[in-house]
Design a protein that fits this description.
With 196 residues, the protein is an alpha/beta fold. The protein is built from 8 helices and 7 strands, in the order E-H-E-E-E-H-E-E-H-E-H-H-H-H-H. It has a single domain, classed as Rossmann fold (3-Layer(aba) Sandwich), CATH 3.40.50. 37% of the residues lie in helices and 21% in strands. A hairpin with a 4-residue loop joins strand 2 and strand 3. Keywords: Cytoplasm, Hydrolase, RNA-binding, tRNA-binding.
Length: 196
Amino acid sequence: MIKLIVGLGNPGAEYAATRHNAGFWFVDTLAREAGAVLRNESRFHGFAAKARLHGEDVFLLQPQTFMNRSGLSVVSLARFHKILPDEIVVVHDEMDLAPGVAKLKLGGGSGGHNGLKDISAHLTTPQYYRLRVGIGHPRDLIPGGGKADVVNFVLKPPRREEQEAIDVALERASAVMPMVIQGEIERAMMQLHRQP
């Protein structure tokens, strides 16, 4: 069963609407659903809440350490509450998926995502679940966009039509959360990975 859902993003109002904060958006949605309030927990280096979701107690976390140091926050809360890596879902933006697509998987590489890299290092394993929220790649979405534009791209808000597609993907991901939380990951994956 899943005991911790971590949304990745960068703290501060200037980053709130940027593509890199898709994980924060998802955790905000779950907190609203549960009527939970994320509070600043300095011992966990982030905003955290204990939420009752789909009949289970689950911790929600938004690290406030900036993306490339997210592991400190995750490992602090996981150790304190004795949560194992395979009981954690990390929600993050994914450039290899188009806006509107969300995929769930266990383990794997970081795909160049600094937040995942740091979490894997702190947990000393990549064997935690990832909910990958597609934001698209600048090479596909911006004429002449390439690798050099990646940092600029993730730290900018999506265009309106991209935001709408991302919101739909977040809704679809939220709809499978009852299965995810109950540990029915395969069923959740099948439903989420079916194209609408």
